[in-house]
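Cast an eye over this sequence plus tokens and explain the fold to me:
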Amino acid sequence: MRAAVLHETGQDKLEVLDDVETVGFGPGKVKIRVRATGLCHSDLSAMNGVLPQPAPFIPGHEGAGEIVDVGDGVTGLAQGDRVLLCWLPACGACPACKRGQTQLCLAGFMNAGTPNFKRSGDSSDVFGFAGTGTFAEEVVVDAGCAVPIPDDVPFDIAALIGCGVTTGLGAAINTADVAAGSSVAVVGCGGVGISAIQGARLKGAAQIVAVDPVASRREAALRFGATEAVAPDELADAKQRITAGEGFDYVFEVVGKSATARTAYETTRRGGTLCVVGAGAMDDHLQLNMFELFFDEKRILPSMYGGGDVLTSYERAIALWRAGRIDLAGLITHRVQLVEINEALDQMRTGAALRTCIEI
């Protein structure tokens, strides 16, 4: 089958091969024919080594498709079922799951170190990013990674719900719990940032300022609910005009860099909330002095995968999409075939795309 492979961490191009096979199918597993997958910035971060991932690997973790085979012991799933892929399934038994913090379950991360593909010719191991690897025609995953979707939800919409939409909406709704009438700034307006904007709008924020260096993304943010959109060097002026210099009630950092997180902290009012959504590098340190940490009393809330139960978040996103309360189709600004995957990478790197849908 065809799949897009990164041979070594640090390479900026994927090679589309036709000699890749899935491995690991058996009890408790399902095989999925991938129909659509989104390109998330986390895929690029894994490629360049910001996020740890053994190589060679197949990127992609935001996908949807049809089940083609079901292993022994799997219940509730059958051949032909339409599903989205959950890259961080809850085991239900660990301390985090028992506390109701299923988004912190580590069981799914263990899958990233187990190869679920191989090359046909030499049988060498190939890993799937985050235990999935949706830049492939088929993927074998734990049954818990396959979440059934209703027939009226298209595969491309379902794929977005599998990561970016859930992450952004959840940051605003679950983690920050944005208050009605409040002021919000969102730093970084790709697919996740735009979803955070939609979440803040749903919660009733009065002012939502979108911050991004790319003009097309700023224009898009206005269509999705931002009341104003500025370049990074205009943020200080927006803070002064909108909040009289006090700072925003909520600031979302959706870039994953210490520099933007520091700016976001300084843009948050005293007693306000900084919500860190971007996935950054382990050696990129955010510096805060102990006095400001005490004196400003700002809440710093990291948000992992939307900060709540992902299955509940999926259902909520589908309900909001059906009701016309959120726009998911508008997030897909580009579409490519798998053989054009490197074009999609360029669209992400330049900021031209909010989300590129890879049709497989």
Notes: The longest strand covers residues 29-38. DSSP finds twelve helices and 19 strands in the chain. The chain has a mean pLDDT of 96. The CA atoms of residues 337 and 359 lie 5 Å apart.
